[in-house]
Design goal:
The protein is an alpha+beta fold and about 190 residues long. The chain has six helices and seven strands; from the N terminus they run H-E-H-H-H-E-E-E-E-H-E-E-H. It folds into two domains: about 90 residues, PH-domain like (Roll); about 50 residues. Strands 1-2-3-4 form a four-stranded antiparallel β-sheet. A three-stranded antiparallel β-sheet has the order 5-6-7.
């Protein structure tokens, strides 16, 4: 007989080798963990997101002004409408992300739920696999808006193996709340 998971040859009758059986038991225990201790959501602030896309605004204004000064008023107005539409589409997408992404801390795991169309996913990490949890502000715009990113790094993979939640408001308070409410022990 062979293990159904890894293909190892089994000495006794069974479905899994001892290593895989232990992993299956751990997975089953994580599935039973359904009581949330803390939920962290992404924040949508229109002013913050408009300032984040200042490049689109500046390019649109310069394009409109250059078209009007060159005598192409219709093209200038059309350029302004297109630039404004791009900004509105970006704002709508950010609002949708804020409404549909969250990270939930349970007793034994942390899960990121993303219900975004075409890119929706659920990512689950057991506390024993967490290497570090950090909060950082990448830009001066995030600092000014009191927003930042929370990242959960895992032991066994690189940067993209963990969980990242962008644009969390009052991140230092959220990290403090995680420390107080969630039973995570990060190994040094």
């Amino acid at each position: 007989m062979e293990c159904r998971r890894c293909g190892a040859v089994l000495r006794k009758e069974g479905d899994f080798c001892p290593k895989c059986y232990k992993e299956v038991l751990e997975e089953e225990e994580l599935k039973k963990d359904v009581v949330p201790l803390l939920t962290v959501k992404r924040k949508y602030k229109p002013g913050f997101h408009v300032r984040q896309r200042w490049d689109v605004i500046v390019i649109t204004i310069l394009t409109v002004l250059s078209c009007i000064t060159a005598g192409h008023i219709f093209v200038g107005i059309l350029s302004g409408i297109v630039g404004f539409a791009i900004l509105l589409a970006y704002m709508a997408f950010q609002k949708m992300l804020a409404a549909k992404e969250k990270v939930v801390f349970y007793e034994k795991k942390v899960v990121k739920y993303s219900k975004v169309p075409f890119f929706g996913s659920t990512k689950e990490v057991a506390y024993k696999d967490i290497k570090d949890i950090t909060y950082y502000q990448q830009t001066w715009r995030q600092k000014r808006a009191n927003m930042g990113d929370i990242v959960v790094y895992v032991k066994y993979t690189g940067y993209f193996g963990g969980i990242k939640l962008d644009n969390v408001e009052n991140g230092t308070e959220v990290i403090q709340e995680i420390i107080e409410k969630v039973p995570i022990r990060v190994e040094e």
